[in-house]
Amino acid sequence: MPSAALTYADGVLLRNGRPHRILAGSLHYFRVHPEQWADRLRRLAALGLNTVDTYVPWNFHERDEGDVRFDGPRDLARFVRLAQEEGLDAVVRPGPYICAEWDNGGLPAWLTGTPGMRLRTCHGPFLRAVDRWFDELIPRVADLQTGRGGPVVAVQIENEYGSYGDDHAYVRHIRDGLVERGITELLYTADGPTPLMQDGGALPGELAAATFGSRPDRAAALLRSRRSGEPFFCAEFWNGWFDHWGEKHHIRSAESAAETVGGILDEGGSVSLYMAHGGTNFGLWAGANHDGSRLQPTVTSYDSDAPVAENGALTPKFFALRERLTALDGAVAARPLPADPPLLAPRDLPVTPRAALLDALRAAAAPVPGPLPLSFEELSLASGLVLYEAEPLLPPGEHEVTVAGLHDRAQVFVEGTPVAVLDRESGSFTVSGTGARVRLALLVENLGRINYGPLLGQGKGILGGVRVERRLVHGWTTRPLPLDRWTEQDTARAAAAAPPGGRTGFATAVLSVDEPADTFVALPGFGKGFLWVNDTLLGRYWEIGPQATLYLPAPLLRSGENRLTVLELECLGDRITLHDRPGLGPPEEYVETFD
């Protein structure tokens, strides 16, 4: 058995027997177009880092049970080999839970929607599913280890488990599963810098690392008081933060980030910047948080105020951190600074209204009948929209209609007319009855599956039924709309399925380019919806912000004409605008702390 590249003794991290620091940055291959992987890795090396770390999202590789993919944007091995070509070591964080503000924390919806499933525990069905996934994944990671000629020097055990539970047998099962499938490099756990979190997630005999955004001296003191012979490792230093819809754009000053990194290094520690380059939650992969009273869906951008911006631009934070990192004794030699990627010239694109909302959606999916509304999980739908319709018989007069267990947002139509927008959990609206049947339509949107905390794995759709006063409404037709799986042909069919009508529905625009380059897309006058570019769902937009532009990377464009398709749920605008800089919203300085 080959020896591990990274070891430690007397509180000192060693690489091949010599003192070493991990100077890492998180860069997620699944948030960057594959044609840009090499460029973004080169920028991490220019920052002064010697290592890249990445999660592996299970649901990205196995969207449908049994269909495991490692090709194209899922080619983990290619990404890791590109890191090696840039002279970077690699740290792999295979979960199976990753958080990462990623939909469902990386767990597949087909798994979490299984009745009776007990996530992140020794529950037999969960362990068996994890084992099958690890049988596919871990041998691939093992083949990339330094002992086999690759760059992988460390593998993380689960992820911040101490913030979730205390089933130590489960964490040991994950550790043992890594070893049994060939992992011989350094193993470590990563948890918050509190006794409770470290107690829940750390394992005897394996390096215990911490994740935090401030007070490195306190974190170092805690870890050393518990593991005196282990080196200090900040497995995630939060030099920026992510954003939720309806909140402000979180930033962290370059000076604050550099000062705290300096504190970690002054403690003799290793560090991984979270994020070094954030990338984008393309499609519908953005997750959501829940603060105990409300859902907090994450925006499409994962810029995270990182040193390398969403489009690869080098920020002031990049230069502040680079100065600190390259000044270290034994630091890697400063690399040449790459130029910022080219951008398209700003312009306006006129929009042509196409199919009306409800008529187009009815044509886009076959109805599934049922006595009660079916959940997303019952429809084998991970994300997107579901259109629910029923025709209850209502006596004359005003009637209160209640939607129970709504996850997450419903637009309500009575006889085709919009009458209400309901938020999560429950809501009600009033319908006038005449003694005849009334056509109800509820368009329910999954705003992102919860990625952190005890509500992980919650279902989506109408989970508690619809009542007219005390009486349940039966006889529903349900149409699942997997927007993130639609191709250019699918969106073209939907946009042509019905005539335009009203202020909602499909619309298109044409973008002609001689040579593709990056751009930032805004939709002024639009309310809420989804934007496709050719075959790709770029993501969700929403006028409540903070994000006002969507990053469109050059590889998604082709020379000549490109088709932009909008599905607008609230209010169509008349133009799409291209910008040469991002619009991420009003900033708010933010540093996550553990008090």
Structure description:
The chain has 595 residues and is an alpha+beta fold. The protein has three domains: 6-326, TIM Barrel; 347-354 and 484-579, Galactose-binding domain-like (Jelly Rolls), CATH 2.60.120.260; 372-474, Jelly Rolls (Sandwich). It contains twelve helices and 35 strands. The strands form eight sheets. An eight-stranded parallel β-barrel has the order 4-5-6-7-8-9-10-12, surrounded by five helices. A hairpin with a 2-residue loop joins β2 and β3 (18-19). α9 runs parallel beside α10. The chain is globular and about 80 Å long. The model has no long low-confidence stretch (mean pLDDT 97).
SSE topology:
Layout: E1 6-9, E2 12-15, E3 18-19, E4 23-27, H1 37-46, E5 51-55, H2 58-61, H3 76-85, E6 89-93, H4 109-112, H5 124-142, E7 152-156, H6 168-180, E8 186-191, H7 195-201, E9 207-212, H8 216-226, E10 233-238, E11 249-251, H9 254-266, E12 270-277, E13 288-290, E14 295-297, H10 316-326, E15 347-350, E16 352-353, H11 357-364, E17 368-370, E18 385-390, E19 397-407, E20 409-414, E21 417-422, E22 425-433, E23 440-445, E24 461-462, E25 466-468, E26 471-472, E27 476-481, H12 488-495, E28 505-513, E29 519-522, E30 528-533, E31 536-542, E32 550-552, E33 560-568, E34 575-579, E35 587-589
